[in-house]
Write a structure and sequence with these properties.
By secondary structure, the chain is an alpha/beta fold. The protein has helices at 40-46, 51-54, 98-101, 143-146, 152-163, 182-192, 204-212, 225-232, 250-257, 277-283, 295-306, 322-330; strands at 2-6, 14-17, 28-38, 60-61, 66-73, 85-88, 126-130, 134-136, 172-176, 196-201, 217-220, 238-243, 258-266, 286-289, 314-318, 337-341. The longest helix has 12 residues, at 152-163. InterPro entries: ADH-like_C, ADH-like_N, ADH_Zn_CS, ER, GroES-like_sf, NAD(P)-bd_dom_sf.
């Protein structure tokens, strides 16, 4: 089968011919990929930022946002059948450890992360995952239309879901970045809360999209974005800031846009937050980290998606143009999410 494999850090991946995966364990599921999302994390992987954290053996197949059709199952799988349409939680979990028992999939002691750890991902024609990772979809769903909800979607949703108790009517939420994750976060906020939604982005086209999908106000990141947000909030800042960028200075903007007693949710990464501890204590602002989401988050998000309340805006590329998709994402030419279609 064809697969997008990374051979060396700081170099483009290549399209290789490799053997198709087969079930090994009783709960394994082989999925024929119908859509694989292209994520900024893939760029960070290529840059080597995850090398020390996951330490994968190269070469391996990229791709952690996947949806498709069940192709084969292990002998112990009872919840799925060949032909089922599925979206895949990006991190299969064991179901047995304390974190799994508490529903905290991302903190599973025995989890693996296809496309990020020592397991091939889904930028390929087939992927091996487990029965626990599969969320069944309506058979009429096109996997390419929803694939990026598997990571970008639940990452955005997870942060919003956590923040809902902080956003009663009359509050203000700021979304930094209206791209692949942010445009999903905006829709989740609009669907689940009554908060005023202020969106900050440096791209006018992204702000135009934000205005169509739920933003109350949009702010161009032209160097005066913090002051603009302060003006919209009576000088105090937002009750909650969702930072889907968190690099190249946006991380300090996000903190400075957060009101006293407010919460700064960090979802993007790559930057560095430098804050005097007195600044945290004296204003009682909170910094909240977010990593992907739970199986339940993904199942809830798919209810919103299939009800038309969250729509993924995509640019589709054939698998053989994976490098073009990565370059377009890096250059800011992708509106919404890039999807590879084998």
């Amino acid at each position: 089968m064809r697969a997008v494999r990374l051979h060396s850090y700081h170099q483009d991946p290549s399209i290789d011919e490799i053997p198709e995966p087969e079930p090994i364990g009783p709960l394994d599921v082989i999925v024929r990929i119908g859509g694989a999302g292209v994520c900024r994390t893939d760029l960070h992987i290529i840059e080597g930022q995850w090398a020390e954290v996951q330490n994968p053996d190269l070469p391996y197949v990229l791709g952690h946002e996947n949806a498709g059709w069940v192709h084969a199952v292990g002998e112990g799988v009872t919840n799925l059948a060949v032909g089922d349409t599925v979206i895949l939680h990006p991190q299969p979990s064991c179901g047995l450890c304390l974190a799994c028992r508490a529903g905290k999939d991302m903190h599973c002691e025995n989890a693996f992360f296809p496309g990020l750890s020592n397991h091939d991902g889904g930028m390929a024609e087939y992927l091996r995952t487990t029965a626990r990772a599969c969320v069944k979809l309506d058979p009429g769903t096109d996997p390419a239309d929803v694939a990026a909800l598997a990571d970008a979607g639940i990452t955005a949703y997870h942060a919003v879901r956590k923040a809902l108790p902080l956003l009663p009517p009359g509050t203000t939420a700021v979304v930094q970045g209206a791209g692949g994750l942010g445009h999903i976060g905006i829709q989740c906020l609009a669907a689940l809360s009554a908060a005023r939604i202020v969106v900050v982005d440096r791209n006018p086209d992204a702000l135009g999209l934000a205005g169509k999908i739920g933003a109350t106000h949009t702010v161009l990141a032209d160097g005066n974005q913090v002051e603009a947000v302060k003006d919209l909030t009576g000088g105090t800042g937002a009750h909650v800031v969702f930072d889907y960028v968190a690099e190249q200075g946006a991380e300090m903007d996000g903190w400075n846009m957060t009101a006293p007693d407010g919460s700064y949710f960090v979802i993007g990464y790559g930057g560095e937050l430098r804050i005097p501890t007195l600044d945290i204590i004296s204003t009682e602002r909170n910094i909240v980290g977010n990593i992907v989401g739970t199986y339940t988050d993904l199942a809830e998000l798919m209810v919103l998606a299939q009800a038309g309340k969250v729509t993924l805006h995509t640019q589709k590329y054939p698998l053989d143009q994976a490098v073009d998709a990565l370059h377009d994402l890096d250059a800011g030419r992708v509106r919404g999410r890039a999807i590879l279609v084998p």
